[in-house]
Amino acid sequence: MSSKRVVYFWDPDVGNYHYGVGHPMKPHRLSVTHSLVLHYELYKKMQIYRPYRASAHDMSRFHSEDYIDFLQKVTPNTVQAYNKSLSHFNVGDDCPVFEGLFDFCSMYTGASLEGATRLNHQCCDIAINWSGGLHHAKKFEASGFCYINDIVIAILELLKFHPRVLYIDIDIHHGDGVQEAFYLTDRVMTVSFHKYGNYFFPGTGDMYEIGAESGRYYSVNVPLKEGIDDNSYFQTFKPVIQAVMEFYQPTCIVLQCGADSLAGDRLGCFALSTKGHGECVKFVKELNVPLLVLGGGGYTVRNVSRCWTYETSLLVDSPISSEIPYNEYFEYFAPDFTLHPNINTKQDNANSKQYLETIVKAVTENLKCLIHAPSVQMQDVPEDFFRTQMEEEKEPDPEVKVSVQEADASVEPPNEFYDGEKDQDKEMEQVEA
């Protein structure tokens, strides 16, 4: 088992939604990822939960009630009655109305929220929700294939217990929704590594976006150019995160692992390998701070699933073979059937060493403007509706040895993960904070 306690959230329905013909966002990538996690037997190294489903009340902790009400009511059959609302809430081409939209939002948001709560109660060291990480959604509207910003909602939960939360984003797109939500506070530092320039979506994330008011210098942006490779990326990522850790000293980290920064992504223009992308995840894990790991972008299904499966193995300290095990999606990985395909890109790395060094220097100088890691006054912690459930889950005695056979027997077969008495998808009474 991993030296760290890892929980992993999976709802078997979350990969069944469809944005529409031709749309680049494909929730099916989640089913392919989970299949690989099972067939590599990584499920034996962590606790798997069918997560809580977020309610409209949970979503309204960040989003406006009018917007949430709209998402609950609109369907492909009723969309004509909401013509004015569609443009008002930015729902249309990029963020279409599809069957089960609100349920989909409820699943990925509930998993991130439960991950945050389990970290708060020290039930785990790392929580993984590959269905989450939808970082573009705004308070009043959808944006960039994202409807509910599960990241913001999870961070708000973490702030009940943690004085300082660090958000790190390695999606190719700027984490604009999360930055905007916490732009005026020092309780959350947002750090985003992303493609910037040439009208690349969402058009924000300049190096000089540093926060305002109490949040001045607590927004960190690393604008990158096309073609960045593993070596250049990590030589930028490592010193920036080291400086952030030194000056900010977070007590919890949220890591968004958007896989559209991989080479060959349908919407991307970077040249990262799965190993290069994973190196960032490994580095953050080794900081030994409570960690919530989320998915995000990623539009070439076979590459997304390879990447997040590999990163799951890193998070549970379990090396896995580069040969893809036979599974129901095996043909997706032709012709090489490998976890780490060769990078074939004709695109030059437009990021010069001097350019990257300038960014790192500028970020470090800004961080020096922080006098010290901010603290918060002691106060009563609001109740949450997972407390009772998790207090009842007793940790096994570390002194008692368990045989391999007993450990394997405690894990349900792949098709029966969620049918036993320990099924986590039970109605949980909400307690108003």
Automatic annotation (TrEMBL):
Please list the residues that bind a divalent metal cation.
Answer: D171, H173, D260
Instruction: Please note every region of biased composition (Basic and acidic residues).
Output: 419-433
Q: Which UniProt keywords apply?
A: Biological rhythms, Chromatin regulator, Chromosome, Cytoplasm, Hydrolase, Metal-binding, Nucleus, Repressor, Transcription, Transcription regulation
Its Gene Ontology cellular component terms are: chromosome; cytosol; nucleus
Question: What's the domain of life for this entry?
Answer: Eukaryota
Q: Where does substrate bind?
A: D94, G144, Y299
Q: Which reaction does it catalyse?
A: N(6)-acetyl-L-lysyl-[histone] + H2O = L-lysyl-[histone] + acetate
Documented EC number(s): 3.5.1.98
Determine if Transmembrane is one of this entry's keywords. Answer: no
One GO BP: rhythmic process
Organism ancestry: Eukaryota, Metazoa, Ecdysozoa, Arthropoda, Chelicerata
Q: Where in the cell is it found?
A: Chromosome; Cytoplasm, Cytosol; Nucleus
User: Which PANTHER family does the UniProt entry name for this protein?
Assistant: HISTONE DEACETYLASE 3 (PTHR10625:SF36), HISTONE DEACETYLASE HDAC1-RELATED (PTHR10625)
Active-site residues per Swiss-Prot or TrEMBL entry: H136
Which species expresses this protein natively? Nephila pilipes
Listed CDD domains: HDAC3
Put simply, this protein is called: Histone deacetylase
InterPro entries documented for this protein: HDAC_I/II (IPR003084), HDACs (IPR000286), His_deacetylse_dom (IPR023801), His_deacetylse_dom_sf (IPR037138), Ureohydrolase_dom_sf (IPR023696)
